[in-house]
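Example record for the data management plan.
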Amino acid sequence: MGTLAGMLKAKGHIVAGSDKEGIYPPMSDILKKQKIKVFSPYNEFHLKHFKPDIVVIGNTIKRGNPELEYVISNGLIYRSLPDVIKEEIIEQGKLPIVVTGTHGKTTTTALIGWLLEYAGVNPTVFCGGFMRNFDSSFKLRNGKYVVIEGDEYTTSFFDKNPKFLHYRPHIGIINNIDHDHLDVYETLDKLKLAFTRFANLIPNSGLLVVNNDNRNIKDVSHETTINKKTFSLKQGDLVAKNISFNQDGTRFNVFHMKQDLGVFHMKLIGEFNVYNALAGISVALHIKIPIVKIKGALATFDGVSRRAEILGEKNGKLIINDFAHHPTAVSETLKGLRTMFHAKLSSSGGGRLIALFEPASSSAKMKIMEKPIINALKIADLAFIYKPDINLNTKSFTKAKLGSKIIVSRNIEKLLFHLKHVAQPMDVIVMMTSRGFDGLKDKIWGAL
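Corresponding structural encoding:
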């Protein structure tokens, strides 16, 4: 929603918004820079004061919200976020490139946007995170392509379809399908059906780009006859081989239809980012971007804020901020960091990987996620879990054989107290949350 607010402001609209508890970084900083007022908490007075022509209603807003009730009772015009995106940036004649998948959407959207920008294609880009190469979460350009992050979550209180069904995909990417958003998709089959519906929106002149290593995607792609391209680390139209990691990033060979395109390098780390890169390269090849341009764009791609973002180091302890909130994302992030900082975390280096995890998403609060969370955190040497939902049994976490141990905390000051007494030089400490972690990003430095 913050990205949409910024984009509308850039297009000349007068924009303000409201939130239950205020916005947290990096979006709060972005909106402040753009001079977009955010009211908090929800109150009908904000609407009376601002007098909007149109109210854009987010998908977390439900009946009973005082501002929504005011909108409905007073006959104000309202729209969903996808409605406005479709009206404002998917203009007649534009070709939407819609990036979907339960993980990696934001990074892949930013990467494809940068691939096209680097090649001079001048794309419009709408991303759910802050894209470092663009110094923004959106980019308005005059080219024919529109790169959009397509979310599988519901659209609004009045439209329970997935957001990505609104974006008229010409090229659609499905990077992965993992059972997420359990509050909406009770079964994996229901989630796969949503992606099948998305794939069936692509015209015959378009393209569906899919991860051939994801079993759930295979079930979806078999349900559509549209033109497809697959990417893989094993077997597909586009395959990455000879993958190597170091602190400078990742190198790998790319084979397109078994033809070696040479060595590609990127600053991002981790196998999951190789998949993200392959998705982007597949799109770039389809729209005939030269190989040399693709390699140059990938090598200069700086990623997205809060994706394994190094915040700094104090007293030999490295602090990293990440958006991971689903067990799969937590697992992949921790694996990537182990690889990236192998020298620090080896027995000779003496450092440990410490995970600080806030299970704040709807899915992460569910009982069914208890064991997957434990298994993901086992990759760390030491883990703190912050404010686990009442559905999660804290004894399951504290009894888990997790390196040394796992510490459950419901108070940010107590978490910092424990961290201060266990952290040591050479440790790599990663904060993982989809929310604000009660200001841990700023407070952690005092504990080091």
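Summary line stored alongside the record: The chain has three domains: 2-81, 89-299, 309-447.
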